[in-house]
Specification:
Order of helices and strands of chain A: HEHEHEHEHEEEEEEEEEHEE
Order of helices and strands of chain B: EHEHHHEEHEHEHHEHHEHHH
Number of helices of chain A: 6
Oligomer: heterodimer
Number of strands of chain A: 15
Distance between the termini of chain B: 43 Å
Largest interface: A-B, 15 and 12 residues
Radius of gyration of chain B: 18 Å
Number of helices of chain B: 13
Strand content of chain B: 15-25%
Number of strands of chain B: 8
Helix content of chain B: 40-55%
Structural class of chain B: alpha/beta
Largest sheet of chain A: 6 strands, mixed
Largest sheet of chain B: 8 strands, mixed
Structural class of chain A: alpha/beta
Radius of gyration of chain A: 30 Å
Chain lengths: 245, 271
């Protein structure tokens, strides 16, 4: 096989699935005059939002009694205000026929819930909003033994356990984990990726210790001279450091 | 007020049924009106250990389904005045039990008995869950062996989270540890977990240590609860455990290697 043949086998394209956020303009009435007027007001509020925005025209909520819609005119109207029609969504036959005549794709009517989009100027939003106040996340305190098969998760904060943690139990926290009793289970601190999180054990006999995804299992921990002692575990780079308390 | 006692373990073959029979009989011996209920639907054993297998007419599932009354299904022990057995069904499986059905029977038993001892099946599925769900106290039977300890630990977790008391936010189930098939010689050789090890891992109150004993097998085969064999070490150990369950302070026995006498050492005699 020659070099050229080999190159011919090389794929030229790939098909990929993707989810895109797209604005849907849902038409409630077949009244292009009022649409033009109302759309102009909307665009005036946030001109940047509407410049060359891809759009799906939803005609499936249009009352059947309001007659045939001039799809070409509707698209031209949208175009004038910066909205570029990608496809229409319709279930009336005449709308579908009109779309096909204009060579516009037709999507099936949507059953899913769609949320209302309020076009806002991003710059304006920044000015209006104050920086959020720092929130103190509550610490989760556990006073009864955590047995094998149990899982305790302190979301958004620290976890303090004042009773033994058995082998097969799992402690998770977005922040730090403290165990003031024998610790024989698994402890995963900083599960959302906080590399500053720490683990404190009064008696470290853990199956696994992990901070922000970096972990050590019992096989490694047992070799540590501090096995069974009071320790703290910190993360530096991608190395878990175990130091005496 | 009746007390519902569950004998449970998670792991099979550790001595739940032997313990249920011994503890139930021990409570009756001390004058408390007691019923032992076999929750192991499909693998009925308690009647054999209690020696009443030939007198089983109606069982637990019959009562749940309303095919028999509780009075008809309760089997009176021939040896003790105030001891009864409620046998499990051998022909059905654990799905025959429902929470409502079990609750109805437990509530009915509460009226007439001081102690209801529930013999739990192995595992943590429906049968075991229903056996412990209504309990006030639990005896967790554990062998001095790592897998048994791990399963007991899991069971303790379920007692603390999946019982009626836990769901209603009442006082938690009172947990007791009963270590069975204990062999001090093997502990000394390091082949078996010691009492302290198990106590430390499970962190609950030790109710008793039952030594590994020939008497247990003999008693099971004869259908006599081992606690009635007051010559045997296992029988005496169960007796102590019942006393502790009733709140007496009794020192633990059979924890150390027996000192062999001179003659025994010479001839290597066995008990």
């Amino acid at each position: 096989m020659s070099q050229a043949d080999l190159l011919n086998q090389d794929p030229v394209f790939q098909l990929k699935g993707s989810m895109l956020a797209i604005t849907v303009l849902e038409l409630a009435h077949n009244d292009l005059e009022r649409l033009e007027q109302q759309l102009a007001e909307k665009v005036a509020q946030a001109p940047n939002f509407f410049s060359n925005i891809p759009l799906v025209l939803a005609l499936d909520k249009l009352p059947a009694a309001e007659g045939i819609l001039d799809l070409g005119e509707l698209m031209a109207l949208c175009r004038r205000h910066g909205l570029r029609t990608l496809a229409i969504r319709a279930n009336r036959e005449e709308d579908i026929a009109a779309a096909l005549a204009l060579d516009i794709p037709v999507l099936p009517p949507s059953g899913a819930r769609e949320k209302l989009v309020e076009p806002v100027e991003i710059a304006a939003k920044r000015k209006a909003e104050k920086p959020p106040e720092p929130v103190v996340k509550p610490t989760k305190v556990i006073t009864s033994p955590v047995r094998g098969g149990m899982q305790v998760y302190a979301q958004g904060g620290d976890l303090i356990v004042l009773a033994p943690v058995s082998a097969g139990a799992e402690l998770l926290a977005d922040g730090n984990i403290h165990v003031y009793a024998p610790m024989r289970g698994r402890a995963l601190a900083g599960v959302k990726g906080d590399t500053k999180a720490r683990i404190f054990c009064q008696q470290m006999g853990a199956e696994m210790l992990s901070i922000a995804g970096q972990y050590k299992v019992s096989e490694d921990l047992r070799r540590d001279p501090l096995w069974g002692d009071a320790v703290q575990v910190t993360l530096s780079g991608d190395v878990l450091n175990i130091t005496r308390l | 007020m009746a007390k519902i006692l569950v004998v449970t373990s998670g792991k099979g073959g550790v001595g739940k049924t032997t313990t249920s029979a011994a503890i139930g009989t021990g409570l009756a011996l001390r004058g408390h009106k007691t019923v032992i209920v076999d929750f192991d639907v499909g693998l009925r054993n308690l009647d054999l250990i209690m020696g009443c297998e030939r007198r089983v007419v109606y069982d637990f599932v019959n009562v749940v389904n309303g095919e028999a009354t509780l009075t008809q299904a309760l089997i009176k022990d021939k040896r003790l005045e105030n001891l009864y057995v409620l046998a499990a069904s051998q022909t059905r499986d654990k799905d025959a039990l429902t929470k409502e059905g079990v609750e109805k029977i437990i509530n009915e038993l509460r009226q007439t008995f001081e102690y209801v001892v529930c013999d739990s099946p192995a595992g943590i599925e429906k049968g075991a869950h229903l056996a412990m769900y209504f309990a006030d106290e639990a005896i967790v039977v554990t062998n001095p062996e790592v897998s048994s300890v791990r399963d007991s630990d899991r069971m303790l977790g379920l007692l603390a989270s999946k019982s009626r008391r836990a769901e209603l936010n009442e006082d938690p189930i009172k947990e007791h540890l009963l270590l069975t098939r204990y062999n001090p010689e093997r502990v000394q050789k390091g082949e078996m977990l010691g009492v302290e090890d198990v106590e430390e891992i499970l962190a609950i109150r030790l109710l008793g240590v039952i030594p590994e004993s020939q008497a247990v097998l003999k008693a099971s085969n004869q259908g006599v609860p081992v606690i009635l064999d007051d010559q045997s070490d296992a029988g005496q150990a169960y007796s102590d455990a019942v006393d502790r369950l009733l709140g007496k302070e009794v020192a633990h026995r059979f924890l150390d290697v027996k000192k062999q006498g001179f003659m025994q050492r010479l001839f290597g005699g066995r008990e």
